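Deviations from the work plan: none for this task. Representative record:
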Amino acid sequence: MWQLLRELMTFLRQEKKWWLVPLVIVLVLLALLVLFSANPALAPFMYPFI
Amino acid sequence: MRNILGISAFYHDSAAALVQSGDIVAAAQEERFTRRKNEEGFPTQAIEYCLREGGLSVGDLDAVVFYDKPILKFSRMLETYLAVAPRGLKGFVRALPGWLAGKLNLRGTIQDELPGLSSQCQLLFTQHHEAHAASAFFPSPFADAAIVTVDGVGEYASTTVGRGRGNELELLQELRFPHSLGLLYSAFTAYSGFRVNSGEYKLMGLAPYGEPKFADLIRQELLDLKPDGSFWLNLEYFDFLFGERMAGSRFHELFGGPPRAPEDPVTPRHCDLARSIQVVTEEAMLGLVRQAVTLTGSKNVCLAGGVALNCVANGRLWREAGLEGLWIQPAAGDAGGALGAALAAWYRQNPRVVQGSQDAMRGALLGPSYSNAEVEVVLQREGAIYERLPDDEALLHRAAELLAAGNVVGWVQGRMEFGPRALGCRSILGDPRSTAMQSVMNLKVKFRESFRPFAPAVLRERVAEYFELETDSPYMLLVAPVRTDLRRVPTGAEAGLDRVKQVRSTLPAVTHVDYSARVQTVTAEQNPLFYRLITRFAELTGYGVLVNTSFNVRGEPIVCSPEDAWRCFMNTEMDQLFVGHFLIERRRQTRKAVERTVPLTPD
């Protein structure tokens, strides 16, 4: 996954597509959210009041 | 790097190809194994087959090459959705999970799908059109050639013009998404009620029934063709940018009404639309090929990409572009990208020597074959009543006699074809002299629209006796006129699509309403058994031609295994089936329903 992110950033830098960076960051956060919410061990931290 | 596996997947026509020391050892589309037409999933079974054919395990692979660059494609998708936001949001939300689930991190996906890859195995990625170009040039019989690739879209490019020389391949110019000839043709395919990525052949088959009444409108409003072969789409008429339907409401207004629903009748207007887009596509292809010849100085041209499967356009290129050689990759669509990716990786490090005039595709017979012992096990398990023929001679004798008597014969022999055409190994065959053959095959065997013509498979040395064609067309990718002296003036009163029933030549089953035919030339070198069958048929009838259509029914992939062939045979009105040395006759079978693997659905 880290290699993919590195390659993605290299591509954006080479092609000077900086305006895509915010969208990529949002998508990474979204992916992390999906990943964490699928992990029951992390659920108490995501839903601390339940 | 000795063993290279090429993969195409996740869009349509997933496939795998194995190249060993530069030789194309095996290639197959995943749909043939999963029995889902245009299968898009990871080609697990096709890879297993390729490795089996090469005598390898996953750990023996030196490189796995994917046929496009997912980061570039993802970037193009993001840019497109941003450019049209918020309208494309629905499409974006629909597409995103697939990307995050594995299409983007393809390295991880390949490692997950192929456990056992050695740590030395390289995971490589070619550009989509680089893979197409490699699939067109490296197996071709040319040492030096111009290359044209045209499809819907790859990463950014939709069309490229390049040059191949020895083991070097260079893409010189490209046209970028959304300006795409493939997407334009697909928009008309969808508008005419056929399925995108598989119904394009139908539109091409429909074209001769119509007049190019809308061609000027297309040139004025939709497609700006430039003198250098480039073109520009007027995006106001299309919706594919939004990830929804192909043609927009302005497109519908321009052509006088809403799209045709899949099972609605085909009207003269649809025929005229088909003819119009066909004519404009041919003009665009001519422009591109002329530009490629000008840029490279080579009159040998290699073609690939989905649009290169438009054999009517290819025939026109051959007749009008002043070429010395034209070679078209038989798996010109995305499936061929798997092969191109593997070849591109091999030739980056190794020299290429072209020997003789033969291409390196082995007649496109790159799929699995089944021994007589394997066939017999299946037939016994299925309860088939069959006859075992002692040898090839007996097989050819019986098959030729049955064909000459007007029977419709299933023919499953040797290795399966790679690409969308059946070339005499997974075919349904018939007598081209029969006036009823076209209707019988369409309606009782293939269960498909009766307007679609069948192709002739003809002995290479006798092609000029029947068709105005003096070159090889081994992959059924050139359409040529039937010779004038064989033509007949139709006498029937049929009109519209029923004109297909009129007798237009001494080969009525393979003559389309415009006197054209989609020719396959057969040589003893490329397909010896099929060549001998046509020769036997010629000895009985005087005609060195057979009707050859793919062994499948509407909506189903071409059969692969003896089991697929048996199932398909029992669900149609085919008269006989030859699988290996076994003859199965319909009249001897106990009537019983054999479960279909796929429902009969519009394709």
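The CA atoms of residues 210 and 269 of chain B lie 8 Å apart.
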